[in-house]
Amino acid sequence: MANLVYKRVSTDRQSTARQNLVQDEAGIEDPVVFEEDPGTSSRLHPLQRPKFRELLTYARPGDTVHISEMFRLVRGTGHILDVLDVLHRDHLAYPRRRVLREGPHRPPPAHRRAAVHREVHGADPHRRRRTSA
Q1: Measuring CA to CA, which residue among 40, 36, 46 is closest to residue 73?
Q2: What is the DSSP letter of 71?
Q3: Residue 103: which H helix or E strand, with range?
């Protein structure tokens, strides 16, 4: 079973250094890397991007697909669902327990959001409010 890594940057002035760091921190062994040419449009559907299509052609059941941050591949829920359909159809794995890197594009877990809400507003957002009759 192979570890397949997908990388993409938006412009030729950017590098994949941060994506490499995330990959190293995750301890991915013997990765097979598929890296889009710089400037491959993020507006292009993921299933139409040349290197991601190559990754899907190369992949075999049981392989694991690694992407440092979801925004490197998808732009919205529709893209996520399309990609997940293909991964499930082809029996490919993806890290289920964690995203490789938490960042500004990943909201905090619900329990942390509730704690922040309590600290700012002084109440639990999930507690039912009394209504006066």
Answers
A1: 46
A2: G
A3: none
